[in-house]
Amino acid sequence: MTHALLVIDVQNDFCPGGALAVAGGDDIVPGINAAMNDYAAVILTQDWHPAGHSSFASSHGADPMSMAEMPYGPQVLWPDHCIQGSVGAQFHPNLTVDRADMIIRKGYNPAIDSYSAFFENDKTTPTGLEGYLRTRGIATLTLVGLATDFCVNYSAVDAARLGFDVTVQTDLCRAIDFNGSLAAATKEMMDAGVVLK
Ligand code: VGL
Ligand code: ZN
């Protein structure tokens, strides 16, 4: 069975200087590049929002990091970030993108955010990644990237619930850590059977 490295959202907007910068987000790039050599498959995800996306505070006349009630549940309202085709949406320039077998984009639906690489935030609309992994015989995943407490967490929990064998390599992740989100995410991942190492 193939063991894949799933690299979550290592994009300019999540690195220092970006619109939704995660502290130390760029520090993990060399380690992720090195780790790619240890896996038979490498998959990258890319947060990919249309302008005016419903997860943006600016779309609601609200303050960034405030909460909104969406049809699918509560949603953090973010600064505008990872707009399709923008420099902020590009991968960090030092990330070894050429090594990727597959790049999956998410968050393109204007009405629904998508933290997870597997399902949009309504928890039902699939991205197609599950089918890709299963048809390639990939049953074991190691996740790295940004941000630990949002897209890495949601992706890891969904993968575990789908029956994949999931490890999150925390030294190759960085967190937003907003309102206790990192502690909550850590508990969610552990409860879902994700191995944190
Ligand atoms: C992310 C917030 C909004 C992430 C993406 O990659 O963790 N967080 N969009
Ligand atoms: Zn986003």
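^ zinc ion complex. The longest helix spans residues 148-161. The pocket of zinc ion (ligand 2) is lined by residues 47, 49, 55, 81-82, 107 (CB under 6 Å).
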